[in-house]
Design a protein that fits this description.
With 712 residues, the protein is α/β, with parallel strands linked by helices. It is built from 28 helices and 22 strands. The strands form six sheets. Strands 8, 9, 10, 20, 21 and 22 form a six-stranded antiparallel beta sheet that branches. Strands 2-3-4-1-5 form a five-stranded parallel beta sheet, sandwiched between helices. A five-stranded mixed beta sheet has the order 11-12-13-14-15.
Length: 712
């Protein structure tokens, strides 16, 4: 087995894997082996106590979770879900794009979470919830509806299903019981399950899909969304509680005075209590400073609906040391002999010197660990020769005669004509850009896995993400809600660069042709009122048959005019969603790049400098950025690996140096479509371009080290 120093030299900094940014706990899988149970244990116990009370008497309760940025609020919610999912259903609800859509946002996010499959289970939370309803707790009924083969259920069974639930919950005041219970029955049919979930989320379904579900209307209003969510509470007496976790709320809409619109969220919470909805535990997670700035604007009666306020505390240095130990555990496990200290190569002295008060935040402790780890890693490179004849020599910046911050130099024997190489730490700007690109790739991959089709996002979310992208690219005069009426949140307008004309954008993916007709009619009205001189319709979906009124109005607007219809691809949505995720992190003060907490303005600067959004074809079609070939296009049958090559260089920059085999493994994990041989060719190309260098090329592949270089 290799020594711990050999492992440190080849592996990625374990603290680079930690970024305490907020995120949906259904997309962030925690490793239970990398947790310090004592951290925030009192808070976990307090929340468990409230959950147990809801389990006991079914009365909904609400708690406000406060903590400083970097204190681990989102991580705590994730841990809460992982720990208590066996006795509760968990829903993650993040910031909403438009306060006029708050109930639809809550319902969509709740159902999105309920269709997730918990650890150790074979079925989704939604099916587990349905099976646990009191209507099916008797053995004969449960056997009838769920243990028989689904495909043998007859049409008459659906009616019996609806009738039985209506009889069981006749006193509960169920909203549209025939429709709601009918859709619940459709959940038991594997062929209809996806459509039933889409209806429950509030998707605008096509006429054909609605006929399959035997429904006449979709959930297309705030009142309907509120009542469907209420239905979950009204029939949930004998099921496990549903925990609604409101998190990552720093990007919510703002009021005219610039304050954040928390009142609309507290209206939702109050409604849950006033309507006596059962079996909900509402957790609202907010940064302490954000709460102090906004709580006075929330009506006192709504604040009173919060039963308990829980404040996250700082962690002790012993807990910070344990965090370090858990991060280093994997490296230590492979080493022989085992390090004498569980936090080697770090020292507790670093914590004591950096945090003399004896306490800190988890993020600060992890950032310190990252900095000290890289210092040690750079120092050990000079202590061993790369092979038997070519030693490594440490040279200070004074010895090199320049102003670079030189950590180590790889050189040949004295008096040889070969040019010496500096293993150089990139300057702050290059390092920030490199870390941003790695973080972008990480987020982009998660977004790809989560958003598998455009219609998974509501129109207000899509237009909101597009608005953020336009803002970072310094488009001027952006105004929301170009069109009026019910679909106003589907639109925006902005000043056309270099001209006085305004450009309007409407984005709709609603499948029902009546909805499409209403949206396209609103577009026509906006054009007639001269609210914009150029109109873009963004829509990947169909336009309906030529004889339909919506299609005919579409033809009038977009045939032989300066108005355009753009069909977005899923990749463009992934770009917008990835940037949106980073915006949320920056506003939550949780985005750390190159050891620094990045503000939204700093993020915007980095995004523009790195040109990450310029590959978004939707922005190219809108002529916001210049046209270019996508790095995922096949050209002449040859795959374009520009993003892969960029990833390799960025990773080496952030590590200083690392194992070649580790670099290949990291790359293949990030880009599953890339083969190891392709990665090796890209590494050779970077070496030829003299951007990186293999320090010991004659060694076996598993022993080779590669570094970022700067020639002197």
């Amino acid at each position: 087995m290799p020594s711990i120093n050999d492992i440190i030299k080849r592996e990625v900094n374990p603290f680079d894997l930690t970024n305490l940014k907020p995120g949906n706990f259904w997309g962030e899988q925690q490793d239970s082996m990398l947790m310090v149970e004592s951290i925030h244990q009192e808070t976990i116990a307090e929340l468990e106590e409230l959950l147990n009370l809801v389990c006991t008497d079914n009365r909904s309760r609400s708690v406000l979770l406060l903590g400083d940025s970097g204190s681990g609020k989102s991580y705590l919610l994730s841990r809460l879900k992982r720990t208590f999912n066996p006795k509760a259903f968990f829903a993650y609800i993040d910031s909403w794009a438009d306060s006029d859509y708050i109930w639809r946002h809550v319902l969509r996010n709740t159902v999105d979470s309920l269709i997730q499959v918990p650890e150790g289970e074979q079925e989704s939370q939604l099916m587990l919830w349905l099976k646990s309803l009191s209507a099916f707790t008797k053995r004969n009924l449960q056997q009838r509806f769920f243990n028989d083969s689904i495909w043998l259920l007859l049409q008459s069974d659906r009616q019996k299903f609806i009738k039985h639930l209506k009889q069981t919950y006749k006193q509960a005041g169920i909203y549209n019981p025939d429709i709601f219970f009918g859709v619940l029955h459709d959940l038991t049919n594997p062929e209809l399950y996806p459509l039933a979930c889409e209806w429950l989320k509030g998707d605008d379904l096509s006429e054909e899909s609605m006929q399959e579900l035997k429904v006449k209307h979709c959930i297309d209003s705030e009142d309907a969304a509120k009542n469907i969510l209420a239905n979950f509470g009204r029939i949930a007496t004998d099921t496990q509680p549903i925990v609604l976790c409101f998190d990552n709320l720093d990007n919510i809409p703002r009021l005219p005075d610039g304050s954040q619109d928390f009142q609309v969220l507290f209206n939702v919470n109050t409604t849950i209590h006033n309507s006596y909805l059962k079996n909900f535990l509402v957790i609202i997670s907010v940064i302490t400073d954000t709460w102090k700035r906004n709580n006075a604007r929330i009506q006192r009666a709504d604040r009173a609906r919060i039963e308990r306020l829980v404040q996250l505390k700082l962690i002790t240095l012993d807990q910070a040391e344990a965090l370090w130990a858990y991060r280093l555990k994997v490296l230590h496990h492979e080493a022989n002999p085992q390090p004498t200290s569980p936090i080697f190569p770090l020292k507790k002295q670093f914590l004591e010197e950096s945090f003399p008060g004896g306490k800190t935040r988890p993020r600060n402790a992890l950032n310190l660990g990252k900095q000290e780890y890289i210092k040690y890693k750079m120092s050990i490179l000079s202590t061993q020769a790369t092979d038997t004849t070519k030693p490594l020599v440490i040279l200070t910046s004074q010895q090199t005669g320049n102003n670079k911050k030189v950590i180590a130099r790889v050189t040949q024997k004295p008096n040889t004509p070969e040019t010496p190489i500096i293993i150089d730490q990139p300057n702050e700007s290059d390092k920030s850009e490199a870390e941003l690109k790695l973080l972008w790739q990480k987020e982009y991959k998660k977004v790809q896995e989560k958003i598998t089709k455009i219609t998974l996002l509501a129109a207000p979310e899509l237009i909101g993400m597009l608005q953020e992208a336009l803002a970072v690219l310094e488009v001027q005069g952006i105004k929301t809600k170009l069109i009026s009426g019910k679909y106003a949140s589907y639109s925006l307008s902005y000043q056309q660069p270099g001209k006085r004309e305004r450009v309007g954008i409407v984005w709709t993916e609603d499948s029902h042709m009546t909805s499409f007709f209403n949206v396209i009619s609103a577009c026509q009205k906006a054009i007639q009122q001269n609210l914009c001189q150029t109109m873009y319709l963004i829509r990947a979906g169909g336009l309906g048959k030529p004889n339909l009124a919506g299609n005919q109005i579409y033809q009038q607007i977009f045939t032989y005019t300066n108005h355009r219809h753009i069909k977005p691809n899923l990749t463009s949505v992934h770009y917008l969603a990835t940037y949106h995720s980073l915006v949320n992190s920056a506003l939550a003060q949780e985005l750390v790049i190159a050891g620094k907490t990045i503000t939204l303005q700093e993020l915007k600067t980095l995004i523009r400098e790195s040109q990450l959004l310029e590959k978004c074809t939707l922005l190219q079609d809108l002529e916001i950025v210049s046209k270019q070939e996508s790095d995922e296009d096949d050209r002449n049958g040859k795959k374009d690996f520009r993003s892969v090559k960029d990833f390799l260089l960025s990773l080496i920059k952030t590590q200083g140096y690392m194992g070649v085999l580790t670099l290949i493994t990291q790359c293949v994990n990030q880009f599953p479509f890339v083969k190891e041989t392709d990665v090796q060719l890209l590494i050779e190309l970077l070496c030829q371009e003299q951007k990186v260098k293999i320090i010991n090329p004659k060694a076996k592949l598993q022993d080779q080290l590669i570094c970022f270089i700067a020639k002197i």
